[in-house]
Amino acid sequence: MNIVPEVAALVPDMRTWRHHLHAHPETAFEEAATSAFVAEKLRSFGLEVHTGLAKTGVVGVLRGRGNGDAIGLRADLDALHIHERSGVAHASRHDGRMHACGHDGHTTMLLGAAAALARKRHLDGSVCFIFQPAEENEGGGRVMVQEGLFDRFPMRAVYGMHNWPRKPLGTFAMRVGPLMGAYDIFEIVATGKGAHAAMPYAGKDPMLFAAHAINALQTIVARNLHPLDAGVVTVTQVHGGDTWNVIPQEVVLRGTVRAFKREVQDLIEERMQGIVAGVAATFDMTATLRYERRYPATVNAAVETQHAIAAAAAVVGAEHVDTDPVPEMTGEDFAFMLQARPGCYVWLGAGVGPDTPNIHSPQYDFNDDALPIGASYWVRLAEQQVGSGA
Ligand SMILES: [Zn+2]
Ligand SMILES: [Zn+2]
What we know:
Layout: H1 5-8, H2 11-23, H3 32-44, E1 48-53, E2 57-62, E3 70-76, H4 103-120, E4 126-132, H5 140-146, H6 149-152, E5 157-168, E6 172-173, E7 177-180, E8 182-191, E9 195-196, H7 206-224, E10 231-240, E11 246-247, E12 250-259, H8 262-282, E13 286-295, E14 298-300, H9 302-316, E15 321-322, H10 334-340, E16 343-351, H11 371-386
Parallel strand pairs: 3-4, 3-5, 5-16, 6-15
Antiparallel strand pairs: 1-2, 2-4, 6-16, 7-14, 8-12, 8-13, 9-11, 10-12
Helix pairs in contact: 2-4, 4-11, 7-8, 9-11
Bound molecules: zinc ion (ZN) (2 copies).
């Protein structure tokens, strides 16, 4: 392990920052205190600081000595609506909110890298440290891109990182092409005719629609997708009925679709339309489908992925860098930045065995031992990309 010396010196500070952030989680677009904390730290390191991007986003710029070249390194600020059950001393003081995805660690690692690079002051090009709000569900990264992030701060490439408890501490994983899936959501409303439960002939039972539609939707991946293409159709909510003896008028199904390719999203949406209309017709009722594309797939560029592999290998050794991991269908709004600029998103191993709680678990806590590894990766990547070689 080759921890950057300037990063190693910051480990006690980074742990303190991380525990403070963990104890005070804030959710999408409300990360005001977190944002202020980040801005204050960046100013104290001597960086140029820009606040208020996508409400609570922050960009710190470390100006190089001159060649105009610049890259972006990105972290996320937001927490989740989860009741923390980690039992750690720095557990959430905000009831019902929790840093269960490790964005406290991501923010801390990027701050650590900013501090270390600011001390070294040896870059020719510039580094933009991007702290985005609302990664979970609400697309803060998309808002930053729409607000002109890359026009205000010209960058040749952009890089992201997520801690990954399912990979061992001291490793990295990344690949060219898709690493994480597109994230779509859907809502199906079936409208029948309410009736007395003992007189079903007098109504049109939308429960039948739900029972058949949930089954039929599972045939899209099984029967319509090419077997080597990947897709997920998951119904996560069924809402209908209020009491024992009434057939309800309406049933609502909601859920999510995941895929790596736009063509697969198109196919799933088209088949869902057909199935919803067909099942509704079968039972002589109406049904509507609302299909919404939230995040595109997270797709890494070829050249930038090679840069990321080299930087990771400089820290943990090439033998601990997995360059062909199996992608996951979890969504990531860094995908919007990768649509605007070439870049690479990596997984930072954070697991210490099969029992390490995974992200989004109420038992989860960011692994502090990953802090110097991730921060060193950022420093090496910046040096390699915009450094003077000195
Ligand atoms: Zn998350
Ligand atoms: Zn996350």
